[in-house]
Structures are given as structure tokens and as C-alpha cells.
Design a protein that fits this description.
This protein is an all-alpha fold and 246 residues long. The protein folds into three domains: 63 residues, no CATH class; 52 residues; 122 residues, Serine Threonine Protein Phosphatase 5, Tetratricopeptide repeat. Helices cover 82% and strands 0% of the residues. It has twelve helices and no strands. Helix 3 packs antiparallel against helix 4 and helix 8 runs antiparallel to helix 9. It is elongated.
Length: 246
């Protein structure tokens, strides 16, 4: 199956090259995209990425087709993620967000890409960039009547990212800032959860922290990504406590 995908990719690539010789750039671009998708299915990610970057993106960017450029960068980000190249995926998601923003009707799609980039930043340990990105999404959502009530989710993710660095003081200050921005946050479950987590981290109490997370999970089951970042915070807290004892 993979071999067939690679062969199909080669066939589409050759067809695209012939289209270019005939100065048929539009159909050539379509053939190059098909080629890249075949390479992707075959697991030949580097060939797929190179085809999109070298033969598809330059044409559509030059033509000002920013929504299409965003879609291609998002595809590249997904392929990088599939091949476990987190740094490349983060960069590509940010590129996709940039082009989505240039198409002013696609701000939500831009935020979705930024969210994916921020989550990958957490997985790679770049908590500073993660928290700044989550925060920017939350602030942007507050400007939308349709999205403002989901801003608190991104503010909470920003707090998680800060706590993963062990900086409970910054987390506390940022939570206060977010409450000032979002009047619905102070009375929310998310805020109460963040408060007790910050207190547990500030006290260096890994046991209290674990109890808080367990109680919250019973009430509102945690998704896999949140579970992972909360475990990172717990491990950092345990390591910090151990260092302080020695």
C-alpha cells in the first residue's frame, strides 16, 4: 500500500512537471498537491513536505491566495506532527495562523492553529511560549461575542503552562489579570481549580496538589492533554521538593 502511494506520488509529480512545461501553472499546482498527499499516505513525509514547500506554496503566496496558503501550512504542520517533528510542526502551525489572520474572515481558524502550536510547546517543555500563546488566544476571544465565554479555557491553559515552570507567583498574578479582563472567570470552576493548584504549588505540597487534581477529575473528567500537563507540573513539584530537602 505504501509503495503504491509512493508510485502514485511520483506519477502526479511527473504530470505536474509536464504541466509546468506547458505553462499550465494552475493544474500543475493541483497535481503537485496530489503528489504530496500520495507521498504523505506512503509515509514519505520529507518528499511530501518538499513538494508543498517548493512547488505549491510559492505560487499561491505570490498570487495572494492566503487562505490556500494557510491550509497548506496547516497540512505541513500536521505532517510534521505525524512524523514526530514537534519543532517543525510548531513553526508550521504558526505560519498557518499567520496566513489565516491575513484572511480576516479566518481568525478562529488562526486561533485553532495557535492552540495546537501552544499544546506542542508544552510537550517540548517550552512553557514560556505556550503560556504567552494561550494568553493571546484568550484575549482575542474576549473580543468576540461568540467566543468570549470560552476564553477562560485558554487562560486556564496559560496558568497550567506557567505552573509547569514552578512559578506560582507569576501564575497568581496572571490569574488576577485574567479575572480583571474576563468578568465571568472569578466565579467559574476553572478559576477555583486554578486557585487551589497555585496554592498547592506555592506551598510545595505535592500531596495536596494530587488531591486537588483527583477531585477535579471526578467532577469534570480531564482530557488527555490536560492530564499530561498536570502530571508535568506534579513531577516538577516533586523534584523541587526533593531538591529543597537535600
Amino acid at each position: 500500500m505504501r509503495r503504491a502511494g509512493g508510485e502514485a506520488g511520483d506519477a502526479f509529480y511527473k504530470a505536474a512537471a509536464l504541466r509546468l512545461e506547458l505553462l499550465d501553472t494552475v493544474d500543475a499546482r493541483t497535481e503537485f498537491r496530489e503528489s504530496a498527499m500520495c507521498f504523505r499516505k506512503a509515509g514519505e513525509f520529507s518528499r511530501a513536505l518538499n513538494t508543498l514547500r517548493d512547488n505549491v506554496l510559492p505560487e499561491i503566496v505570490e498570487a495572494g491566495q492566503f487562505l490556500q496558503a494557510a491550509a497548506v501550512w496547516k497540512t505541513i504542520a500536521e505532517m510534521q506532527e505525524e512524523s514526530f517533528h514537534s519543532a517543525g510542526s510548531i513553526a508550521a502551525y504558526n505560519k498557518a495562523a499567520h496566513f489565516f489572520k491575513m484572511n480576516h474572515m479566518s481568525s478562529t481558524a488562526a486561533c485553532e492553529c495557535l492552540d495546537k502550536a501552544a499544546r506542542l510547546c508544552v510537550s517540548t517543555g517550552d512553557f514560556g511560549l505556550a503560556y504567552a500563546t494561550f494568553e493571546s488566544i484568550g484575549i482575542q476571544f474576549l473580543d468576540s461575542n461568540l467566543l468570549k465565554f470560552t476564553a477562560k479555557r485558554y487562560f486556564l491553559n496559560a496558568i497550567f503552562s506557567i505552573l509547569a515552570t514552578g512559578d506560582a507567583e507569576l501564575a497568581k498574578n496572571k490569574l488576577g489579570e485574567y479575572k480583571a479582563r474576563d468578568y465571568t472567570l472569578a466565579s467559574s470552576v476553572q478559576c477555583s481549580f486554578a486557585d487551589v493548584l497555585i496554592n498547592a504549588v506555592a506551598a510545595g505540597d505535592a500531596s495536596a496538589y494530587a488531591d486537588v487534581v483527583l477531585a477535579h477529575d471526578r467532577h469534570s473528567p480531564l482530557d488527555p492533554w490536560t492530564t499530561s500537563v498536570l502530571l508535568q507540573i506534579k513531577n516538577a513539584l516533586i523534584a523541587s521538593t526533593f531538591v529543597n530537602l537535600t
